[in-house]
Specification:
Strand content: 5-15%
Number of strands: 8
Radius of gyration: 21 Å
Structural class: alpha/beta
Length: 466
């Protein structure tokens, strides 16, 4: 009883804090109600997990020493065919040579990776018998490197073993992985902080992923010097990915409403629902993004704006890495997976591709107009973090207020107008719905229950946004 009483005092103390109004206190009071109830199947705990992060101009040059400190003798450097010609990769290679380390460069990571591109990287990693991995790139490169590390360190694993259920088996990771250092070259995915790797499953024509804390990078390197080579559209779409990460994690199902509670703490998911820790990072990411995203997109020489967006990406990554995303990301997977002809400026690819941030933001106004009734105060607070004066605003107007603010941001950043601009028509909606519904890791974190009819309605509203 003494332990339980002490925990109660902690919750009581924290409940006096007000992060964005009274919402946080309510979270903790509810969490206290869940404590110690063996018959209740709902969750009563949350965990905080994040990669170590090193930030600063020029810190990439320390990679050689880092690999040595980790006991590395044979290093795998993973990147893509564009970045391999640019300074970030050269700095990494120079640092490894200076440290006297053997290394091999794999430059075939695919932007918006597929199961096929993952398997090619896994094969390279398995044959190379590497003892440290270094990923240099955006989310696609980092996710590919996570998968290569995961599977090459367990040759007996089948590909679907660790893929999220119900598409894959969703097995726990019980073997030891090699150290992985992630050098991020974009300001958006936050993949340097998370245990998530996303890819297109070709035969399903939809995205899925692997989500497990064991695959998160050992160290994330955030070096603002690398953002100088980031094209305008990459800056825009990675920046609005930060935006969606933060809003989705802030408005997700609260951790104490997630069910069932795991019987083994090792099975507690990385995506837990919003919680007191994730809220801090998500709020800060939104406020920073609102202030700096436009400058970062339209002025590549604005080192301050791009550097701060680099941090915002990390903040949002820590937020959604511990809370999770929901419907925008769930629908983004088939939107990316079913693309036919769309190609974006700034992305040097030879195949049709909807950039991840674009695939996420295109449904965001309709999503938050739908979810707002479940937690209107949190939607209003998200709008306030994005610069909206919510004084005297009615809670029943929370959805339109947040949706309209997002539309203004999207127009300001020249985001294509809705699904139709990506080549989709109303006739495609059934297949987009079909690709969304299996994304349980995401859909089950929606604060409001969904079914096929709900997803159909959101997609129909997203055909045109302006």
């Amino acid at each position: 009883m003494a332990g339980k009483s002490a925990l109660g005092q902690i919750f009581k103390r924290f409940s006096n804090l007000r992060l964005a109004g009274n919402i946080q206190g309510a979270t903790l009071v509810q969490g206290r109600k869940q404590y110690g109830t063996n018959t209740d199947e709902k969750e009563y705990a949350f965990e905080m997990a994040c990669s170590n992060i090193r930030y600063g101009e020029g810190v990439t040059q320390e990679i050689g020493m880092d690999c040595k400190n980790l006991g590395g003798r044979n290093i795998c450097v993973m990147t893509d065919s564009t970045l391999v010609k640019l300074p970030p990769v050269q700095v990494v290679c120079d640092a490894l040579e200076k440290a006297g380390l053997k290394y091999s460069v794999y430059d075939k990571c695919r932007v918006e990776p597929s199961d096929q591109s993952f398997k090619a990287a896994i094969d390279f990693a398995t044959k190379g018998e590497f003892d440290v991995f270094v990923a240099v790139g955006g989310g696609s490169v980092m996710d590919t490197c996570k998968a290569a590390n995961l599977y090459s360190s367990n040759a007996k694993a089948e590909f679907l073993d660790y893929v999220n259920a119900p598409i894959g088996k969703g097995l726990p990771v019980t073997h030891k992985l090699k150290p992985l250092i992630a050098v991020t070259t974009t300001a958006g995915t936050g993949s340097e902080t998370t245990g998530t790797a996303v890819f297109d499953l070709k035969h399903m024509k939809a995205k899925t992923g692997i989500s497990n804390r064991e695959i998160r990078p050992t160290l994330g390197i955030v070096d603002p010097l690398h953002l100088r080579s980031m094209p305008e559209r990459v800056a825009a779409y990675s920046g609005i990915d930060v935006l969606c990460h933060a809003i989705e994690s802030y408005t997700a199902l609260p951790y104490y409403d997630r069910a069932p509670r795991p019987t083994n703490p090792n099975m507690r998911p990385a995506y837990q629902g919003y919680n007191p820790v994730s809220d801090i990072w998500s709020r800060h990411a939104l406020e920073i993004t609102n202030k700096y995203i436009r400058r970062a997109v339209y002025d590549a020489s604005d080192d301050e704006a791009r550097s701060i967006m680099h941090l915002a990406s990390c903040y949002a990554g820590i937020g959604f890495g511990n809370a999770g995303c929901h419907l925008c990301h769930a629908m983004s997977y088939p939107i990316s997976g079913l693309v036919r002809e769309f190609m974006s400026k700034g992305y040097d690819d030879d195949h049709p591709m909807v950039p991840h941030g674009l695939s996420v933001i295109v449904t965001a106004p309709a999503v938050f107009e739908f979810t707002a009734s479940a937690c209107p105060e949190r939607h209003l607070q998200a709008a306030s973090f994005l610069g909206v004066d919510i004084t005297n605003k009615k809670v029943e107007d929370a959805g339109p207020i947040l949706g309209d603010r997002l539309r203004l941001i999207m127009q300001d950043l020249e985001v294509p107008d809705g699904l139709t601009s990506l080549g989709y028509t109303k006739d495609d909606i059934p297949n987009l719905v079909k690709g969304t519904m299996p994304q349980h890791r995401l859909t089950k974190l929606s604060p409001k229950a969904i079914d096929e009819e709900v997803i159909t309605g959101i997609l129909e509203k997203s055909l045109k946004n302006y």
